[in-house]
Amino acid sequence: MYAEERQRVILERARAAGRVDVAALAAEFGLTYETVRRDLTALERHGVLRRVHGGAIPIERLGFEPGFATRDATLTAEKERIAKAALAEVPQEGAILLDAGSTTGRLAEQLPTDRELTVVTNSLTIAFTLSARPNITLMLLGGRLRGRTLATVDDWALQALHDTFVEVAFVGTNGVSAERGMTTPDSSEAMIKRASIRCARRTVLLADHTKVGNDHFARFGSLDEVDTFITDSGVDQRLVHDIEAAGPRVIVV
């Protein structure tokens, strides 16, 4: 078994059981303790596990939400591929919404320069990325700024979204599963994501494979509200089939 495949199995075990132990994994896979520790360290760098004494715990079980800089630095190649695939969903003109997130941020960087677009966003980083683009009319939602995600939330942002209509909402998520739909750790961000979906003609969900099969505290939508889901090739194909059965077209890149 390759290291990447083994790490995927370790992550699945951790999410199912709530933790994994170095000794048990070493015995199961016939590995040294040091090799298992390297696997756990690699998964921690990807932002999906937190190392603890003797093993590791999945971050969602701890209620842990990585900061924006941490998330932006993980799985960069996968996020770039997802963003490039999402360009096919950008209209020739009109209004789109870019939800706060590291993958939607990659899409903002790649938006075409030859189209006149109105971009609505609650992301401070996306706003900075697009602020100097002459072909973009930028609409930054106001509200309380969450330092962890650099996203605006709460009533000011919600009120603006209630009076907004866009062609496509590009939405990120911390977790997506056929059973729970789309989830995120923070209830205030869940409210903004929910309103973003409701103000759009179409919704495109962008999420790397570590989010798939994962559930968090606050649910903000069901999969039948998503038109297209774009993820990367690290995803478990069984989970892809389950998600497709729940409604959206799934694109794996």
TrEMBL record:
Keywords annotated in UniProt: Repressor, Transcription, Transcription regulation
Protein origin, superkingdom: Bacteria
Gene3D superfamilies: 3.40.50.1360
Residue ranges that the Swiss-Prot or TrEMBL entry lists as coiled coil: none
SUPFAM superfamilies on file: NagB/RpiA/CoA transferase-like, Winged helix' DNA-binding domain
GO MF annotation, one: DNA-binding transcription factor activity
Keyword rRNA-binding (UniProt): no
InterPro entries in alphabetical order: Carb_Metab_HTH_regulators, DeoR-like_C, DeoR_HTH, NagB/RpiA_transferase-like, WH_DNA-bd_sf
Domain HTH deoR-type residue range list: 3-58
Cross-referenced Pfam families: DeoRC, HTH_DeoR
Record bears the keyword Transcription regulation: yes
Task performed by this protein: Repressor of the lactose catabolism operon. Galactose-6-phosphate is the inducer.
Protein name: Lactose phosphotransferase system repressor
Protein source organism: Saccharopolyspora thermophila
